[in-house]
Specification:
The protein is of the alpha+beta class. A two-stranded antiparallel ribbon has the order 1-2. The longest helix is centred in the last third of the chain and has 11 residues, at 46-56. It has a single domain (2-68), classed as 434 Repressor (Amino-terminal Domain). 47% of the residues lie in helices and 14% in strands.
Length: 74
C-alpha cells in the first residue's frame, strides 16, 4: 500500500533553514512546522503546504512524496 510522507526535514537541511526560521518566515506556529518536520501530520493542510512552498520557493514534490508502506505479513 502506498502512503504520503513528508520530507520537510530533508528539504530544510538542503536549504540550511531551521524549523524556527521557517515558522518565522511563514507566520505558521513552530508547533505546526515541527509536526510537519517530524512527519507527525495525519491530515495535510493545503494552506500550510502552500505557505511552506511559497516561502521555500519550491514545488510540492520537494516536501511530499508517495512511498510504499512497509507492512508485515504474518
Amino acid at each position: 500500500m502506498k502512503t504520503v510522507r513528508l520530507k520537510l526535514e530533508k528539504t530544510l537541511g538542503e536549504l540550511n533553514i531551521s524549523r524556527y526560521e521557517l515558522a518565522k518566515l511563514t507566520g505558521i506556529r513552530y508547533h505546526i512546522i515541527d509536526n510537519y518536520y517530524k512527519n507527525k501530520v495525519v491530515r495535510y493542510d493545503g494552506y500550510v503546504l502552500a505557505r511552506i512552498c511559497d516561502c521555500l520557493d519550491c514545488d510540492i514534490s520537494d516536501i511530499l512524496e508517495v512511498v510504499e508502506e512497509n507492512t508485515a505479513e504474518d
